[in-house]
Amino acid sequence: RSIVWLLEPIRNSSVTHYSSTMDHPAGTGQLAHILSGFVHYCFQESEGGIVFADIQGSSGRLSSNAMGIIIFDMMTHTPAGDSGVEDHGPKGIEKWCDQHDCNVFCRMLELGVGDDDDSE
């Protein structure tokens, strides 16, 4: 038997939490709104099959060598509740639906216009 460690590059210790496992605030600023719109887009395109949560980011050097925000530590909620640790299944999805406030990016992408989408 061997031990396996998963490592990631050293990150800036200043972390911005855009959402947590069961808390999905509207957030302020363009990046927060883009990420919220991204989660909504994925939810709609997956027909309610996935919600990204626990989104965090910190400043760092991107692969292009430019400075930017590195997004990490995302997890998901799925209908089956089997996508990984902390997947709360339908309860996690419902929590996002209850808390999500559509923003300019959701409207630009015309998200939330379906009859079965309760996220607005």
TrEMBL record:
Annotated keywords: Kinase, Serine/threonine-protein kinase, Transferase
Presence of keyword Transport: no
Region forming the signal peptide: none
Pfam families attached to this UniProt entry: Alpha_kinase
Domain named Alpha-type protein kinase: residues: 1-114
Residues in coiled coil: none
A GO molecular-function descriptor: protein serine/threonine kinase activity
Cross-referenced PROSITE patterns: ALPHA_KINASE
Protein name: Kinase-like domain-containing protein
Phylogenetic lineage: Eukaryota, Fungi, Dikarya, Basidiomycota, Agaricomycotina
